[in-house]
Amino acid sequence: MAKYQDIAEELKQKILRNEYERNTTIPSEFKLQEIYNVSRHTIRQAIAVLVNEGYLRKEKGSGTYVDDRYKTEKMMQNRNKTIGVITTYLSDYIFPSIIRGIENELRKYGYSLLLASTNNDHELEKECLEKMIDYGVDGLIVEPTKSSQYNPNLALYVRLREQIPMVMINAVYEELNASYICLDDVKVGFMAAEHLIRKGHQHLLFITKIDDLQGKYRMKGFISACERYNVHFLPEDVITFTTETRKTIIGKTLQRLKEKPELSGIICYNDQIASLLVDELTENGYQIPEDLSIMGTDDSSLSQIGNKKLTTLTHPKEKLGSDAADWIVKTIEEGNAQPNILYEPVLVERDSVKEK
Amino acid sequence: MAKYQDIAEELKQKILRNEYERNTTIPSEFKLQEIYNVSRHTIRQAIAVLVNEGYLRKEKGSGTYVDDRYKTEKMMQNRNKTIGVITTYLSDYIFPSIIRGIENELRKYGYSLLLASTNNDHELEKECLEKMIDYGVDGLIVEPTKSSQYNPNLALYVRLREQIPMVMINAVYEELNASYICLDDVKVGFMAAEHLIRKGHQHLLFITKIDDLQGKYRMKGFISACERYNVHFLPEDVITFTTETRKTIIGKTLQRLKEKPELSGIICYNDQIASLLVDELTENGYQIPEDLSIMGTDDSSLSQIGNKKLTTLTHPKEKLGSDAADWIVKTIEEGNAQPNILYEPVLVERDSVKEK
DNA sequence: TTCAATTTGTTCGTATGTATC
DNA sequence: GGATACATACGAACAAATTGA
User: How far apart are CA A152 and CA A132, in angstroms?
Assistant: First the structure.
């Protein structure tokens, strides 16, 4: 260790032990030179180190003062421990639960949560990602925006992933080969169809969202269940929608029900659609579940609130959030990626499905 | 300007103009000494400045290299434009809407949102506040935790307010004299009671939360309406609860209704309680609104979902969030505090109240 | 107001040690 | 091993700012 470093260390200790008070001068260069019995230059080097680290401040003609800039500089460095969370929506449906799960878990680890939402729009997604990069978050939890469509921000994602750990929730861009924590949506579709089929329903209507992968996978599961149980359906028996065309569902469904009266079971993309549909169908004279059996998915609070409690499939929600937080913190602190998680849905039988 | 500073400045310009490429050496100290015709010591001082600022990196025995650490250091300084948001809850009731309002508005201004929740617990509130201080957020939006009780964190709040702008939403600690953006809760209580009284109800039950100020103010409004319209009530006609004793409400209410059958109107602390109560009362054989008129408040989604659509009073929710975001950004950027906001509730008549 | 003492700022010179290529 | 380049250390002098008598 060099002399000037020894002296710097000793001075630093004295400052930290409050032997020199804040905003008071330390001995002059000349005195220190005598105290430590070295050249003035060596003293100046030692002082330069501490000025640099924010422990001292020099004033020409006056003296060298004890400073506490180092405290704020420490904080600057310590301002890590922040996880960025990007979701499509914030306040709707199951998202608040997921975010709560993340927040609760991050708090346990002493991490903070930087939040942004994309409103399911690629432009906003880009802004969010750039903000997160600028910010220097230590990890990212992302719910993909319009996951089934081509994503113009893939290059950004790749760049981000090289720099910090990232995990996707609810879905994962197929091109990206990223880590994920998701519900097994194929199984969701399969089990929903299977349940209705086992209850004797042979003519099913499937309503699904096609701008995200959840919808695509649930449809895949639906189709595979139909094949397995030899249930036939027409292309018209699958009603699709996107974020932008959500409002057209009710009309399409009512029309299809008129065209094909033997339809007795409807599988909805989620409880939100199911809940809406139950209300609208009831107003249009259908009895649920006597005339039509309806399945939601996600076991959201909506499924227990309405006039008819919905038969549905579970979504881990808060658990998914806390697992995602867990994943990201462990990956950061242990340095290697944790395993992916795929949750199995569980059937929740309530009042919207009836044996035929 | 000192020689070494001139030299440092000139070198810096050359680096910024890419005359020295990244990760290549600049001329050695000896050569620079000849170029600028100064002593080696002066050269060393100039170089020390740039090393410190992140433009250069020295490698013993090899040379002095052009570095770009300064870029990341610039970002560090630029890491402002973040607003901390502390609420009691994240995922429940009207909070998601408020947070969405904040997030949407902050995004427009290019600010980020750092989120934390207290679960209505003072210990966690303290942790949140300290995290925010450490973090160096530029402003704070706080929903008070247990606002009607003594708050052990007041000193922290005072310290914070001295450093950065802060605005409270939904309620404000009475001791703190802070800026606020709130619903006029006295008026909420008053209007709820007034509406039932005008509908002919003379015997009212009031259910309110007493660990936050919203509940206290709403009760104040209730009392003042009763006095104004000469409606009498007994102490037992006010049922109070706290975060911890929420579950006891139903039992207490059912008992009180038995004790005093002439009770015909119930005012609930909010839609959450009202919605729960409607369900429980229905199960216990009461007809809503034939036997009992029930008022919620906040006009939450719950008021439109259940079996009975609730008559309720508006809460600005998302508007409150965006106004809070607006307040904090303007206060930061214009330097002086914006005016407080107090929203007037508006009556929303639905199906849970009937003329007597 | 002035002036002298004190303190840091800047520059020059020199020598030796140590890591890299 | 030798040349090169940075690291550490000591000595000396003058400049510029501050402070207090």
Answer: 17
| Distance from the B152 Cα atom to the nearest Cα atom in chain A, whole angstroms | 21
The terminus-to-terminus CA distance of chain B in angstroms comes to 88
What residues of chain A, 210 to 249, have a C-beta less than 8 Å from chain B? none
Q: What average pLDDT does the segment A99-108 reach?
A: 93
pLDDT over 90, % of chain A: 53
DSSP conformational letter for A340 = P
Contacts of B209 (CB under 8 A, 6+ apart): B215, B240, B241, B242, B243, B269
Which residues is A143 bridged to in the sheet?
A: none
Which of B102, B112, B164, B308 has the highest number of chain A CBs within 10 A, making it the mutation to test binding with A? B112
Closest among A63, A56, A323 to A168, alpha carbons compared: A323
Tell me if B21 sits within 8 A of B32, measured CB to CB.
no
- How much is the pTM? 0.77
End-to-end distance of chain A based on CA atoms, in angstroms? 86
* pLDDT tens per residue, range A269-315: 999 999 989 989 998 999 988 999 999 999 988 888 777 889 999 99
Give backbone dihedrals phi and psi of B250, rounded to 5 degrees, phi first. -55, -50
User: Is A124 in contact with B107 (Cβ distance < 8 A)?
Assistant: yes
Give the residues across from A266 on adjacent strands: A205, A294
**Contact status of B123 with chain A (Cβ, < 8 Å):** no
Catalogue the E-assigned strands of A55-193: 56-59, 63-66, 82-87, 112-117, 139-142, 166-169, 179-183
Whether the CA torsion B203, B209, B212, B214 is positive or negative: it is negative
Enclosing H/E stretch for A108: helix A95-109
> Under a CB-based contact definition with an 8 Å cutoff, are residues A102 and A324 in contact?
yes
| Helices (runs of H) and strands (runs of E) counted in chain A | 13, 14
Instruction: Return the exposure string of B285-312: e unless at least 16 CB atoms fall within 10 Å of the residue's CB, then b.
Output: ebebbeebbbbbbbbbbbbebbebbbbb
Question: Distance between alpha carbon A340 and the CA centroid of its chain, in Å?
Answer: 14
**CA-closest candidate to residue A166, choices A149, A146, A181, A187:** A181
User: Position B41: which residue type?
Assistant: H
| B3-46 per-position pLDDT tens digit | 777 788 788 888 888 888 878 888 888 888 888 888 887 888 88
Q: What is the pLDDT of residues A160-173, one digit of tens each?
A: 888 889 999 999 99
Q: Residue A120: name the closest of A151, A97, A99 by CA.
A: A151
Residue A162 in contact with residue A109, Cβ under 8 Å? no
Closest residue on chain B to A90 (Cα): B100
CA distance B231 to chain A (A): 34
Size of interface A-B (CB pairs under 8 A): 91
- Candidates B90, B97, B318; nearest CB to A100: B90
